[in-house]
Amino acid sequence: MAYPLEIRYLVEGLRSKLAAESEIDQYESLFNLAAALLRRGHDIDLDSTASLLAVDVEDFARFARDVIKVAFGAPRMTTPGALL
After folding, report:
1. Counting Cβ atoms within 10 Å, is residue 19 exposed (0-12), middle (13-18) or buried (19+)?
2. Which ranges of 1-84 would DSSP assign to H, the alpha helix?
3. CB 35 within 8 A of CB 53
4. Helices 60-72 and 5-20, axial angle in degrees (round to 10)
5. Are 46 and 35 in contact (CB under 8 A)?
6. pTM (2 d.p.)
C-alpha cells in the first residue's frame, strides 16, 4: 500500500534524520510520523493522538522499532525484543 504524500514526506524525513541529525530531532521526527500514521488510520484528534503515543522510557525502543517497521514496510516481528 502506498502512503499519501504527507506520510511519505515524514518517512523520508525520519530516514534522513536517523542518518545525520541529533537524537532530539530523531525523536521529534519519529513522533510526528507515528502521529500521522495513527491519525490516518483512525478518526481521532491531535490531543487523543498525543495521549495514545505517550510511552514509558522502558517501552520507547519497542515503540520506535514498531513505528519504523510500519512506516518503512518491514514485516512485524512477533518475537519479544527482536531488533529491526
Report:
1. exposed
2. 5-20, 23-41, 46-52, 60-72
3. yes
4. 130
5. yes
6. 0.71
